[in-house]
Structure prediction request, 286 residues.
Amino acid sequence: MTPQNPSDDNRWSDLDRPPLNAAALRRGLVREGGLYRDIEVVRQTGSTNSDLVARAAAGDVEEGVVLVAEEQTEARGRLDRRWSAPPRSGLFFSVLLRPREVPVERWGWLPLLTGVAVATGLARAAGVDTALKWPNDLLVTVGGEERKAGGILAERAGDGGVVIGVGINVSLRADELPVPQAGSLALAGAAGTDRDPLLRAVLRALEDWYGRWRAAGGDPSVCGLQETYTAGCATLGRTVRAELPGDRSVVGEAVALDGDGRLVIATGEGVQEPVGAGDIVHLRPA
Prediction:
């Protein structure tokens, strides 16, 4: 993990991609009684999630620490998928949460809560509509097509901790896309790609939603999370294929999100099957 140093920026300078201002982020987000304890920005690391999980396991970090990297060399998504992006082309960060007031069985809502927070923050700060693909993908529209612009990864960390990792493609250009199905806020027509206000907006929305959810004891209905996620979920109402553990798959219409955050799929056999983990493929355009 390489600390941020102004002199380092000259080696990989891009006038369209200025470095994040860690001091300004701390001034705007760290406050007495708030969620965030510190905002750390490093020039490069393998994975912010791996770093924060290791620190939490060692017991030397408290809830509300945010680790941001200008570049990740070993970034991971769900199912241990690897991905990479040019330095300073996106927001790559992880947050340590310790939701002690919430029963562990409701912690599965944290990735969905984060998705709602990211969509809320980006709508406010970038003017971009972000749809949520269950359980953890962020979708934008580029040239009339649905593209993945980001993702969320939640991992248990030590005793009573969860690290939530977020990756968002901000200024990625068409010739930099890792795959044709990828997108970015810039390609989706964002009003601005200055990452400082984008990160502040996303983290403030996360603090707000996390506070509501925690105050409700993790009940997604009471805090409005289930309703809000459902309203912004691009998966519901679609014909999907769920690729499940054990080389099993289920095809049907995604009809609902249950109280545990599982996707309910109505199959052609008339069965409604809740899916708690798996890879979802959209088979029919919205």
User: Anything to note?
Assistant: The CA atoms of residues 95 and 266 lie 35 Å apart. The first strand starts at residue 2 and ends at 3. The mean pLDDT is 92. The longest helix spans residues 195-215.
